[in-house]
Structure formats: C-alpha cells, structure tokens
Amino acid sequence: MAAAVRVLPASPNWYNSRCSDASSDGRLFGFAARHRVCLLDVSAATPAYYGELLGHTDRITGFAFCQCPGQSSLCASSSDDGSVRIWDARALTALAEYSLHQNAISALHWSPLVKDLIVSGDEKGVIVCYWHNRSDSQQFFPEPRTIFCLTCSPHHENLVAVGYKDGMVVIIDISRKREILHRLRGHEDEIHCLAWCPVPGEERLPAWQDELQVVPSGEGKVPNGELTQDSTTKKGCYLASGSKDQTIRIWSCTRGRSVMILKLPPMKRRGGAIDPAVKERIWLTVHWPPGHSTEIVSSCFGGELLLWDLTQSGKRKWTLLGSSEGQNHSRIVFNLSSVKHQDKELLFSISMDRDVKCWDLSTLDCSWTMPSLGGFVYSLAFSPVDTGCLAIGVGDSMIRVWNTLSMNNIYDIKTFWQSIKSKVTALSWHPTKEGCLAFGTDDGKVGIYDTFSSSAKNKPPQISSTYHKKTVYTLAWGPPTPSLSSGEEGEEPSATLYSCAGEGIVFQHNPWKLNGEANDINKVIRDTNSIKHKLPARTEISWKPDGRLLALGNEDGSIEIFQAPNLKLLCTIQQHHKLINAIRWHHEHGSQPELSYLIASGSVNATIYVHNLKSVIESASESPLTITEPFRTLAGHTAKITSLSWSPHHEGRLVSACYDGTAQVWDVMKEEPLCNYRGHQGRLLSVQWSPVDSDSIYTGADDFSVHKWQISKQEHTRPPQGKKSIELEKKRSMQPKVKAKKKKKPTGKSPAKQDLSDVMNGDESVKEMLLEENGVSDHEGEKEAREAELPAEVPMTVSKDTSSSAYDYSSFSLPKPFVTQKATPVKKDPPKEKPTSDASLKKRKPRSILPFSTLMDHRSKDELHQDCLRLATCLKTKDNNDDVSSDLKDRIHLGLFTDRASVHKMIDMEGKHHLENGHPELFQQLMLWKGDMKGVLQAAAERGELTDQLVAISPMVGYQAWVWTVEAFAKQLCFQEQYVKAASHLLSIHKVYEAVDLLKVNNFYREAIVIAKARLRPEDPILKDLYNSWAALLEKDGHYSMAAKCYLGASSPYDAVKVLAKKGDVASLRTAAELALVSGEEELSATLSFRCAQDMLLSRNWVGAQEVLQQHKTLFGQRLVFCLNELLCKCLSERNPCDRKSPVPPCYHSWELNREASFFDMVTEVWQKVLGMDTTEQITSACEQLHSIEHPPSTSNTHPKQVLFHISHDLTLAALSYHTATWNEAVKSILGAVTRSYDAGNFTLMQEICSIILPEGCDNLRHKLDSTNSQSMDACRSLEGFVAYGLLYDLWWNLSNDSLVIQKAGLDPVLCPSEQTVPEKSCISGHSSPEETPDQTVVETDENLQNTTEVHRCETESDSKTSSVDLVDIQSKLNGCKVLLSEEIAALQNTQRDIAEVQQILADMICQHQQQRNNLQENTNGNTQESNLQQSSETESDKPCSDSTQLNCKDEVKQPITLPELTKQLLKAKQKLAEFPDNLKVFPFPDVLECCLVLLHTGSQCPPELRVQALDFLRKHGTADIYKKATRRFLT
After folding, report:
1. b or e along 1115-1152 (b: 16 or more beta carbons within 10 Å of the residue's beta carbon)?
2. Does position 535 have pLDDT exceeding 70, yes or no?
3. Whole-angstrom Cα distance, residue 820 to residue 971?
4. How far apart are CA 1010 and CA 995, in angstroms?
5. Neighbours of 402 (CB within 10 A)
6. Using alpha carbons only, what angle is made at residue 458 by residues 454 and 462, rounded to the nearest 5 degrees?
7. Strand partners, 424
8. Please, how many CA atoms are within 13 Å of residue 1315, restricted to the half-sphere of its CB?
9. Contact at 8 Å (CB) between 590 and 651?
10. What are the phi and psi torsion angles at 567 (to 5°)?
11. What residues form DSSP beta bridges with 261?
12. Rounded distance, CA 1216 to CA 1225, Å?
C-alpha cells in the first residue's frame, strides 16, 4: 500500500504515557491514532506511510514494539475496549488478543529481555503479565492507586517500575517472590513517564555527589553510613521519572531514593498555534537514549525538547533541541522514542500540535516533520492559480494548505487555525487571486484567508458579518448577481463568494465588503422569474467555469440551472429524488467544446447522473424546461454520493466519493466504471483529481486521513457489491462510539480551543460522533448528517443542571420568548428524610396541622403546670421588654399565647417538622397562614416542586407573582416532558405565541395548530409557518400525503403537488397530477400525468395510461404514441408468442382492428375512431408536440421497454407523416426507429420492425418520394440498407442443412446478432470505434469453418442436388442485397476505421509512456527494462494473432512508428474523410465489409457476380488486420 499511496494520517492520541514506539531495526515507527495504529516507514530520509493495524473498537491507550533481536516486527497495543492485541507490523496482521483487565488499561510495555512478556496496568492499579508464547498470565496488585505509566527494566527481567497518578513510583519484582522492592516517594503529582538508564550500575558521578546534599534528609538516609563503591556498582541501575509537578527525578535502585532533581526551566514561547486564552496543561515525558548513560531527553512546558547533561555541574544542565525557528513543536509533547539507524541516532516525538517529528540526536536538529489530521476531512480544494497547492478542511477546526509539488519536503504543509473555532466543512480558492482561500464552518461562519503573504501564518482571516444558521455545505466563487451592484455606484469585484448551508439558503458575500450584509440570492431568483410559491431548500451550488450558468441543487433532489447575471431560470432537472450533495460542471479546455455543457450530480441516492445541457441552453425558450432523461447514468455505488471531480486531463472522466467507503473513476461517455479505490477505513467525504498528474487522485474520509493514490495501481474496477460492501461496512462499524469517559482530563481548561476533548485525540467530540453514529442510517433529507437541531430563533434553553437554580428570583420577570428545547427529564433526588425511629410517623398523616404544639399540650400534669408559670412570667416582663420570644427558649409552643413574633417562630418550627417528615403540602399551608406565600413559591420553584394547587393560590401574592409562578410551573412541566399541559398553563396567562412555539419546538404540531387556529387571527403568519414546518417534518419522515394536506392548509398547492409526487409510484403520481389540475397548475399536472403514464407502460397497463393522458389536451401527441406502442406490442407478441408467463398480464384495449390493412393504416384507423383524430390542426399540433421532444440515442444499456417506447415515438411521427402524405418526413422517422433498435443491439427487433412496417420492402416507399430531395433519397437508401441487412442474415441462418452443419460448427455465438449485443455496430455516423468493428469473432468463425469444411465436404457433395427452385429463389433474394455493396460507403467506413485505429495506437502509446514513467519513479534500479518488456508483450498479446511468426513480423512493423508519423497518418485520414460528400455521413448504414463476409459465408448459394464484388471490396478496403484474417480463406 505504501508505495502507491501517500497519506496524511490521523493524529496521534493525547495524554498517554506510551502510545508510540519505533521498531528496533529502525524500519518502522508506529503511533496510536484513535482506535487504529498508524505505521510509518522511517528507514529513508523522508517518512512514508506503511499501513494501519486495525481491530480495536475503542481508543488505543498504549503501544509498544518488541525490542528483542529477531522479533523487530512484533508489537502490542492496549485499548479502552479492554483488550490487548499482539500484531505482526510488517504483515499488518493481528496474531493474538486477550482481555484480562476488568478496568480501563492505562499503561503497557513489552519486556526488553523476555521476548514474549507483555506487562500492562489499569486505572484501578492491577498489573497483568502475559507470556503470549504459552498463553500464561499473572496478576499483581501492588497499590490500590491509578497507574499512569510502567516500564520493564532493560537489565533485570523481573523488575518493573510503575508510576501512579498521585506521584508515587513503585519498583516491583514479578518473579515468584512477587514483592515490592521500593516505594519511591518525592513527586507531588501524576507520574507521566519512567525511563531506566540504558547502562547498568550506579557509578557516582561528581555532579551527582553534589546533588545528594540537596536532597532533604527526610527522603531516607543511607542506613549504615556510606555504601562502598563496590556494592553500589555491582547491582542496581538508575531510573528517571517525569512528573506533572514540573520536575524530573533520578532514582537509585539500590538505595531506594532520589539522587538528583531537575527542575524544568521557564521558557519564552516563540510564537506558534497557541491561543493565549488557553492555560495548557503540562506533560513531562522523559527518554533515556540507548548508550547514553549521562544524557536524557525530556519535554518542557510548550513543545520544546531538552537534552540534559547529568555530568554538568551548576544550574544549567540542559540544551534546547531545534536551534532554528519553527523546528520545535508548538504544543506539549507526549511521547519520545529513539532508534539507531545506520550511523545516526534518531528520536521521534508526538505532540498535541498533531505533528510527528524526527530529530537527529547528534546535531539536535529536526530531520523531518509529518503532519496529521484530528478530524473528518470534509473538503479538499486545489488552487487554480498556485498549481499543486491543496487546501484541506478538517473537523479539528484547522485548515491545512499542502504544497504537493514541493521537492525537498513531500509534506510541506502550512496550518491555519485563527478565528475558526469549529469544524471546517467547505473550502474554495479564488479563481484568479493567488492565496485567497474562502472557508465555511460547521457553526455557519464564512471567511477568507490570505495564505500567500509571509505574515499570513499569524494573520487572522476576514470573517463575513453574515452568518448561516447551520453548517456551511458549499462555497463557490462566481460573477456578481444584480443585487450586489444595485443602488451603489462604482466598481464591483470580478468574483463574489457564494455560500450554501444547512438551513437551505445561499448567500452572496462581497469580498471587498465582508462586514456588509450578504444577499440571499433567492430574492433575485424570485424577482427575475416572478415566482410566488415556496422555493426549495438549497443544498449545493456550482458555477459553470465560464461564469455564465449557475446550478443549484435542492433538498428535494431537483437541480435548477440559472443564467447569469439576472439568474433567469433556464431549466429544472428532475432526476434525483433525494437531497443533492454534489454538482460539478465539466471543464472547458477539451478538444470537444460541447462537453463543457456536461453536468454531473450526486445525491443521497447512490446513482450519479450526467446531463448534457447544450440543447437546452441554445434553444433559449421563453419558459423554463424540465429535464427528466439523463444523458448518462453511472450506477454501482451502494450508499450516498458525497463528492465528485472531473479529470482536468481527460474528456468525460469523473471520480466520485461515496459513503460506501470507496472512490470510483468512471468513463462517462461509455457509462463504464474504470477503477475503484478502497484504501480508506471509513466513509469518503471529499475527492479531488490531481491537477498535475493525470494518474493521481486525492481523497478525504471520516477516518481522519487524506490519501493520494494512483488509478493505474488499483486492482478493482467497480464499487463493492453484496458481500464486499458488507465487509467494508463492518470495517467502518469498528470505528469507536464515543463514551463520555471519566478520563485523566486537565482541570483548569477553557473551551476556547480544541483541547476540550482530550479523550478522543482532539476535537471530534460529541457532535462529531453524532455524525458518526447517525450518519450510518441517513435520514431522507440530510446532507453530511444534519443534526436535528433546535430552530435557531429560539435563544433560550433550560439549564439541565439541577444543582443550581434555573431562575432569578430577584424580580418576577422572565425572558421572552419562553420556549424550551426538548429536555431530558430531570432525575430529582427525593427530599432527604431523616431516619426516624417511629416508622409509622411517615405513613400516618398527623391529625393536626400543628402536631408538635398539640403533642406538647398532651404531656404530664407537672409539665403543663410549669408551662403556666413560665407563660405568666413572660407576660409579666412584657412591659419592660417588647420581644418575649427570646424568653420562651425551648417552650416554643407557648407562642400560641404570646405575641406575633413568637407565633411566627412556632409556625417555622412546625413547618420544619412537616418538611422533615415529608409533608411539604402541610408546610405550604402553614406558610399561607403566616402570609409568607412568596417565599414558598420561590422555594418550590427552586426545587421543582410547584403543583397545581400552589399555582392556584399564587394570585394572592399579586398579579406579577402569579404570572411568574405560572411561567416557572410551565418550565417545570417542560422538564417533566408534559409539554401540552405546560402550553395550557401559558395560555392561562395569555401567552398564546409562547404556547404555540413551545408545542412547535417539541413537535406537537397538531395541538399547536389547533391553538393557533382557535386563538389567533386567520391571516397570522405563524399559522402558515406551522403548516410549513410540520409539512417539512412529515416529508422527512416519508408521510407524504399528510405533508400535502399541510401544504394545502398553508395555501401552497404547488408544494402539495411536489410532495405527493415525491414517492414516485403510480398512485401518488396520479393523485398529484389531479391535484395540480384542480389547483390550476396545468403544466405541472401534464408533466406528472406523463410520468405516471410512463410508469404504467412499464407494467404494460395501456388502458390506465390512456385514462391518465386523456385529461390533458396538451398530451394528445403522447396519447397517439401510447396507442401505437400498444398496437406494436400486440403485433410483436402475436408474431413471437412467448412461453414464459409474465408476472403482470398486459392490459390491452379491446379495439376492433382491421388486420387486412397495413400497420400504419390500422393505426390511423384506431386514432380516428377511438382518439377522435379528425382535423388537420390536431395532426399538425401533435406533430409539433412530438418533434419538440428529443430522446437520447439508445445504447445496449437502455431498458428494452424504453427502447420500444422511443421507437413508438419515431413510428408515430412516421404514421402522421404517412397520413398527411409527407413521405420525405415519413422515411426519416422510419429510419430513426430502425436504427434505434439497431443501436440498442436488438437485431431481432430491428428485423421485426422492418417486416411489420415495410412487409413489401422499400420499393413502394421509394416511388412516392420526391427524387429531387437528396436528403430523403439518402435516408431511403440507408433504410433499404438496413432492410437488406436483416434479410441477408435471415438467408444465411435459414440455408439448407449442409451449410447449417458448417455454420453450427463454426459460428461463434457472439457473431449472432440476435444476441443482445451486435459486434458489428460501426455505423457511418462517425461513432465507430475499434472495439465495435467486426473483431475476433469473425476470424474465429472463419478458422473454425476451415476445419469443418474438410470434414463435411463429402456430405455436402452427396446432398448438393437440392431443388433448383429453392436455389433460384435464394439467389434472387441475395441479388436484392446488392444495395449493401456500396463502393463509396465501404471506402468511407474504411477511412473511419483507419482514424479510429490511429487514435487507439496514440492512446496506447500515451498509456505506455505513463506507465513507464511511473515505473521509473518507483524503482530507479534495473527493474525498469523488465517491466517494459512485459508491457510491450502485453500490448501485443492483446491483439488476436494466429501464430508466432505473425507476431514477430508485426513487432518489426509496429516497433519504429513514431509520434509525428502517426499524426501524419491521422491528418491524412481526416483529409480523406473530408473529401467524401456530406450526404453519405448523415445517415447510418450497416457495415459493408461485414455484409461481404456474410455473403461469402453463404457459399455456393451466393451469385457469382456478387461473390466477385464482395471479394473485390474486401481486397480493396479490408486493410484492417482483422479483415485480412477473416478473408484469408476466401482469397487463397
């Protein structure tokens, strides 16, 4: 894969201690990207994409290569799906998998000493050791803490160092002992990385000695004074740890304590893609390069890498990697790994800035940078000015501009991120201004970047002040339409920017005044075309490259073509019936200018249609036309089409990107799939053909990658069908579903930049996954997974956070409009109840509303006496002291007999008691007595405990309070999803609009309409809006008839008709047509009636079709066609009765037919009797009507019933001409019908039509023609040719038995024209191509005949005395075929064959040259000659040869031909072609040489003079190899 494909891969995952690694042989570097592992081949000076390891279904958290000798391609990965997988990286295959952890795995390492041991740790602190060769495992649980990283010792196979989230480092022994050797305490925060010193032993270096004094004494002293040098060195090894506390510590394993602390130096940021508002978290990773016992590499605050020299004394021990500007990462670095490669030592780093960098440790310089992508690739665009400059719009809120032609750096990419803040969904370069790039985003923003200027890197873009409400789908530069210039004097820009977005509106932005208001172009369209009905929602926009025509694709599947600058509607293409995703015009610079009128379109349906608008644009009719017939149909994909691109190098070659996960190259003119690319692991979203290399295509997908691939290297030619597409679907479904994880996330982070979702690698957070999950089952009208969003006008949504109050109680007012989004029901904690000993108290309602006071008055007599005394004392002192309540202390119940303050205290105490026992209603009653109702209402609203009773009582507090309470209650009901009840309460405070809006937002349209109808004025616009919104929703869900009723309610009958017709079945179309008629839309009704009749024709229901058509006078001509079609089908089925029972029996009319008369007379009689065709006006209007319809030419792909219908159309014109005795027109129409059946490859049908229409041949017709009219005479000659052609084959097939024996032995079935395809299709109309000339089959026939002739000669002689009468009859018929042997036509056809042959050789030469160039690029060694030899032998072997000698001589002849010679030959042939009179080229004619061969094959039956003439023609004009071989037998 790597050789043929250049890839921009998905970004490495963030916040993992080890999710990238290099293989020990220095060949591969792998990193985890989402749920896959991406492998790069790093053995050369620049990195190359090697492939991906696929299998995990969730984010990968760890990845490591096996470092043991001989196993460099083995690696392991751990994932959030709970499994660890073992892979063969070279072969890209999985070897084993195990799932032994119960919790999320957070760290993984492959033991450097035990070749089959993998150690992994999880978030709960469990460590699993797994020996994969013997599938054995052991579990350890050293500490109940979250593991952040672990590393196996390179010197002792049983030692593993483990780092924890809280800063602890533990060294464990995993052998039988299973003990903790050291707990290393010192760090205060997460341990991000651990690295063992690559050299064993603990020699104390001078600098380390000093450091020992710094270590606080609490860190553990050496037990018995100094250790001797000896014992330290023999065992033990140093360990480095990097922590979030901004320090690196070097630990001694023997002493179990830190011997050195390195503090990160503060760094001056040197500019970079970092938003100052974001406080970035630090990640401190360390790496101890092999062979360096005294140097370690670490990350730093921003993206800098530091090399620490541990031997250096003093403060500054570090050196910065990457001396020159821009070499460093611009965001924090997560992983480092190094490898020795040839003589260099390389270090690889992955970072939050989405770059993978390779460093040379000897020079400390960056060797190369590989960019990567952190989101779906929504858009690709090549600059028309700066060739090879590719802009990439990505879901990580950044635009990449890739200079694909850069020689010294194949990944020369600039990144633009300022002011974007959302997924980049659309891009478009200015057609003439260099570096001017327009972009559109997911949140509706449109802006323009200057990518060219030197300061552009830090220069923010210009942003249009007009925002879309939803995702921007497409951007296009085009000429200004009138609304831009109206009312303003002076110049205007040559190109303005058009943007189309999810709400269905197209804005025109003035690039000179982006801060001004953008124009909605629908206004211009309405004014120019005076349209009253609702315009469809726009989903795609495309300007013809010359700026004269604009195509708009709509949500209902229609495409409208407008003429600049006033946007006059020229035509509507009604082909797709689902939302349009892509429209592309063919380029202007080909040799056939008519191709620039081709327009290709793709929709949510899988079929691509190409239309040719040349005739429409040139006809310039007053009213807009409707096109329902495609020029070409490209079928094969199995999911929605997302993007299209025409090849700028070829004519009529198109590539499509599709949700089926593949890109497909098509030959549009032949409707042929040429090549299918299946390299992506997801759905394709964008595609661009390389502007410089005709063999290269760039595609972007939702697998976060861009691929550049070559057409010539692909093994598949068509999209996957059946099983294959199921496999692709499986491959895609393995993409992870995002879970909101409790991840080790940074804390103090603001959502200003895209580090929000550290869990995924970057931004593709919940919304992206909406796309990922919803996207699979797409709704009928969604472009790029439209999210079902709240209407944008609703500014207020209810906070779902129940902990904080959602209301402001300071004043009784509520923001307007009051509407709630459909909220999830709030799970409320039930009121906390204190556990009371007496459980019965909860159940039994207290008898009194003042239970506590009552209880106190039922105590013992003594206590009651005490109460009396206390009360008397209190009342006595009342004179001195106003407030008695303080004296009552614990006897609060006595407040009943003292002042108001005491009663309030008593009430509060009783109320508290009620709340504790779960009786809020009694508490509320007490508060009502106390008169503190406002507080109750606020408290109840706060806790979401308002009730109908409280709302009923609330007016006592005042009008404002009542209104506020009702609104708060309505909100509460919305949380409980009781929207209808909430609306009723809003009505009670006269908030009709708010109630209607609330119901509308939550899709209660029926109820909303009832309220609006009952309470609002009939002309209120909200009613119409309700009907339209409901209709749109119903339409989306496929309830078309209900949607139609809504449109009728909104008095939009036009839309009702459109929606009814959307289903496209006969019943719907019929109803829609009748509805259109009732509504006065006659033209639309006629169109639908005709569509309905055509569908009925397919099910052979002619009676129904006539019923539908007879409602419209304008369709009288079509009624004639349908009538003739019915009679023709009847004739055909009577002549060839079919044994197979058809599932649907035909439904014919029971007309009386005059069987004696000719076919045309019979038809005319039925027309007059049944359809009432009696006046000449009727006939002329029918003729005009039918002449205005032009059907595309038939091909072998056209459906037989459609071919028959088009033939009926031609024959109807012929019959009308016959009736009015305009014979010249009649002969052309009959010829049209005959050649149509011939082009469709249906030879038998051609013969049948000839015998039905012309049972006596053409003589009768010829006499009636005007002999002075050369055109009709030519047509007649051509018609005679086809009649004779059919007769000739008939005679050949029906020869006497002896010849038949020979024929059967020799006839290759392909030659038999009654098969579906006729090889001899080369009509004189100039379309003949080498494939269509009589090819191998004729030759094979001939050679087989030679063999069988010998065998059957004796039989033939014995039977040759056949009746002479037969012979004479046959010969006279064969003489009738003389018309086929036309010298001048044979010469013309031969010239056309020569031209085609030269063109084919030219094409082969170009193809061969292309492949040689590719081969040269691939291997500069000696393989080239080998492949060239192979190439030439392939091209030779393609051509049919009889024996080897011929091959050799052909080689000699063909070898020296040069390009100038070929051009000369072509010129000569074209001049020769021009010399032929034009009348020969107008009408088609059967292949003369083919007819000669058939005549010769009739053997002895052929009259001698015809035989001589046939041989003469073959000698003279059969210069093509294939004819030489075919005639060899007759000429020897």
Report:
1. bbbbbbbbbbbbbbbbbbeeeeeeeeeeeeeeeeeeee
2. yes
3. 7
4. 11
5. 23
6. 95
7. 441
8. 10
9. yes
10. 60, 50
11. 249
12. 9
* pLDDT for position 562: 94
- With H, G, I as helix, E, B as strand and everything else as coil, classify residue 1013: helix
Based on the number of CB atoms within 10 Å of its own CB, is 967 exposed (0-12), middle (13-18) or buried (19 or more)?
buried
Q: What kind and span of H or E run contains 136?
A: strand 136-140
Q: What's the residue count for the chain? A: 1532
Helices H, strands E: what count in the chain? Answer: 44, 57
DSSP string of 1288-1342, one letter each residue: HHHHHHT--HHHHHHHHHH--GGG-TTSS--S----TTTT--GGGSS-HHHHHHH
- The span from the CA of 52 to the CA of 31, in Å, is 10
Q: By mean pLDDT, which of 309-313, 762-766, 851-855 is the weakest?
A: 762-766
What is the rounded CA–CA span in Å between residue 957 and residue 964? 11
Beta carbons of 1509 and 1381 less than 8 angstroms apart: yes
Contacts of 1124 by beta carbon, 8 Å cutoff, 6+ apart: 1163, 1208, 1211, 1212, 1215
Per-residue pLDDT tens digits for 682-724: 999 999 999 999 999 999 999 999 999 999 999 999 999 876 6
Instruction: State how far the alpha carbon of 1455 is from the alpha carbons of 1098, 1408, 1412, 1478, in Å.
Output: 54, 13, 16, 36
**Bridge-based pairing state of the strands 568-574 and 625-627:** parallel
Q: Pick the residue with more confidence: 337 or 921?
A: 337
Q: Give the three-class secondary structure for 297.
A: strand
Closest CA to 17 of 245, 240, 286: 286
Alpha helices in 1360-1503 (DSSP H): 1364-1375, 1383-1418, 1423-1438, 1444-1454, 1459-1475, 1478-1482, 1488-1497
Q: What are the beta bridge partners of residue 41? A: 28, 48
Which residue pairs from 1191-1196 have beta carbons closer than 8 angstroms and sit at least 24 positions apart in sequence?
1191/629, 1192/629, 1192/630, 1192/631, 1193/1236, 1193/1239, 1194/1236, 1194/1237, 1194/1239, 1194/1240, 1195/671, 1195/1239, 1195/1240, 1196/1240, 1196/1241, 1196/1316, 1196/1317
CA distance 1034 to 1031: 5
DSSP designation for 1101: B
What's the token pair of residue 1504?
């001698």
Per-residue pLDDT tens for 400-427? 999 999 888 888 899 998 889 899 999 9
- C-alpha torsion 895→900→905→910, nearest 10: 70
Q: In 706-860, which ranges are continuous DSSP H helix? A: 723-733, 766-774, 840-843, 851-856
In this structure, which amino acid lies at residue 831?
P
Task: State whether the Cα torsion 705-706-712-713 is positive or negative.
Answer: negative
Instruction: State how far the alpha carbon of 334 is from the alpha carbons of 9, 52, 292, 304, 756, in Å.
Output: 18, 21, 21, 11, 17
Strands 365-371 and 377-382 come out as unpaired
Residue 172's region, left for phi above 0, alpha for psi from -120 to 50, else beta, is beta
Say how many CA atoms lie within 13 Å of 133 toward its Cβ: 6
Sign of CA dihedral 1154, 1157, 1160, 1164: negative
pTM exceeding the 0.70 threshold for the entire prediction = no
DSSP assignment of 988-1003 equals HTT-HHHHHHHHHHTT
Output 384 or 807, whichever has higher pLDDT. Answer: 384
Which segments of 166-258 does DSSP mark as H helices, in order? Answer: 206-214, 229-234
Contact 920, 926 (CB under 8 A): no
How many Cα neighbours within 13 Å face the side chain of 882? 2
Write the pLDDT tens digit of every residue in 242-266.
999 999 999 998 888 888 999 988 8
Give the number of other CB atoms < 10 A from CB of residue 228: 8
Of 427, 429, 449, give the one whose Cα is nearest residue 439: 427
Q: Return the number of other C-beta atoms located less than 10 Å from residue 625's C-beta.
A: 16
Q: Which residues contact 469 (CB under 8 A, 6 or more apart)?
A: 444, 501, 502, 503, 792
Q: Say if CB 131 and CB 41 are below 8 A apart.
A: no
